[in-house]
Structure formats: structure tokens, C-alpha cells
Design a protein that fits this description.
Radius of gyration of chain B: 13 Å
Number of strands of chain B: 11
Structural class of chain B: mainly beta
Oligomer: heterodimer
Order of helices and strands of chain A: EEEEEEEEEEE
Largest sheet of chain B: 7 strands, mixed
Number of helices of chain A: 0
Number of helices of chain B: 0
Shape of chain B: globular
Largest sheet of chain A: 7 strands, mixed
Distance between the termini of chain A: 36 Å
Distance between the termini of chain B: 38 Å
Radius of gyration of chain A: 13 Å
Largest interface: A-B, 23 and 22 residues
Helix content of chain B: under 10%
Order of helices and strands of chain B: EEEEEEEEEEE
């Protein structure tokens, strides 16, 4: 299985900050990576697919980059609605696997 | 597109359970529907996917034999079932729709069904 290691597990930031979350894969996987946002009590929502493609309707302050084994999710200017948990998912091979999640908290 | 899951369940070890995921807003038979488990405080785990058109299934080996996925085209609903629950099945379960291009990411998620197994 491809192991996904996500960091940091918790991130404290303020409105307006630029933040970056990293996902590292245990083996190369081209750009078959997605990022999701999850808010308490709700199902996750897709933000980014194929490492850098923004899902329809997702604000442009979200961006993704990377290929191979290292990937990043960047939020350029945090808004109050962005404080949530973020996680990555690889879909290069079965079984699909997820990162452990990053909880983005208000500083 | 909407995926609406059945409500929370409280069961005893050894009991059976079938939870559902009612879909709407797209062609049910041309997408794969999957299930994802999230145990308390743990990362998401992909359990498997089913192609609603012909009920072809692909299971995560970790869940093969532990659960059964099915789909009913007539009511555009997917199911996840257990024949004998264990305490370790306590978790939130999400149904997910695999993307239209069948790459493997999940473009829509249900709201989750909390399953609690306790004696």
C-alpha cells in the first residue's frame, strides 16, 4: 500500500495568513493526489484533484502543487471559513489511502 | 448531485446491519460509489467501491470478507452491510462518488453514518 504522511497534524494561524500543508507518499505516484476539506459534523468536500486542479466552485486562494512523492496544499490568505481539517488522498493504486489530516486552528 | 446517508445506528456485537446511501442528481449507473471509514481520532480508510451499472466491486483487502457492498439501480441507492458486527466496527462511515473520469478521487461525499457497536 502507498503510505501518505501528512504534516503538520495541527496548524495555528490567523486570518490573512498564508499556510502550507504537506503530504509525502511512500512511493512515487505521479500526480494522482486529491485534497479535501472537512468541517465538524459534515462530510468532506473535494478541493483539489490531480495535485493541482481546483474543483469547480472552490475559491482561488486554494492551490495545490507537487508530483512524485511530495505534494503541498496552500491557502494564500486564510479566511474565517477555512478553519477546518484538511487531508490528502492518493488514487494511483488500490487500495486508495489517505493522509492523517491537518487541523487548521485559529491562533 | 446529492448523497444522503441513513441515520446513526447503535448495535450490539454479533448483530447485522445494513446502511444506505441514497443518490440523486446524476446517472447512478455510470459512476462508481465507494465507502470510507473513519474510526474515532483516526485517518480515513478506503473500504471499497462498487460500479452501480453492473455491481462490479473492488474491495480494500483489509475489508474483504468483513463487509458487503451492494447497489439497487431501481432506487439509485448503495448499501454497506455487516453480518456480524464487532466493537471495532464503531466508526463514522461515508459514502463517496468516484469522479466522472474514473481517476479515483471522490467528488461528492455523503454526510456520514455513525455506527456504534457496544454491548
Amino acid at each position: 500500500d502507498i503510505q501518505m504522511t501528512q504534516s503538520p497534524s495541527t496548524l495555528s494561524a490567523s486570518v490573512g495568513d498564508r499556510v502550507t500543508i504537506t503530504c509525502r507518499a511512500s512511493q512515487t505516484m505521479s500526480n494522482w493526489l486529491a485534497w479535501y476539506q472537512q468541517k465538524p459534523g459534515k462530510g468532506p468536500e473535494l478541493l483539489i484533484y490531480r495535485a493541482s486542479n481546483l474543483q469547480n466552485g472552490v475559491p482561488s486562494r486554494f492551490s495545490g502543487s507537487g508530483s512524485g512523492t511530495e505534494f503541498t496544499l496552500t491557502i494564500s490568505s486564510l479566511q474565517p471559513d477555512d478553519f477546518a481539517t484538511y487531508f490528502c488522498q492518493q488514487y494511483k493504486t488500490y487500495p486508495y489511502t489517505f493522509g492523517q489530516g491537518t487541523k487548521l486552528e485559529i491562533k | 448531485v446529492q448523497l444522503v446517508q441513513s441515520g446513526a445506528e447503535v448495535k450490539k456485537p454479533g448483530e447485522s446491519l445494513k446502511i444506505s446511501c441514497k443518490t440523486s442528481g446524476y446517472s447512478f449507473t455510470t459512476n462508481w460509489i465507494g465507502w470510507v471509514r473513519q474510526m474515532p481520532g483516526k485517518e480515513m480508510e478506503w473500504m471499497g467501491i462498487i460500479y452501480a451499472g453492473d455491481s462490479d466491486t473492488k474491495y480494500n483487502p483489509s475489508f474483504q470478507g468483513q463487509v458487503i457492498m451492494s447497489a439497487d439501480k431501481s432506487i439509485t441507492t448503495a448499501y454497506l452491510q455487516w453480518t456480524s458486527l464487532k466493537a471495532s466496527d464503531t466508526a463514522m462511515y461515508y459514502c463517496v462518488r468516484r469522479d466522472d473520469y474514473n481517476h479515483g478521487y471522490f467528488d461528492y461525499w455523503g454526510q456520514g453514518t455513525l455506527v456504534t457497536v457496544s454491548s
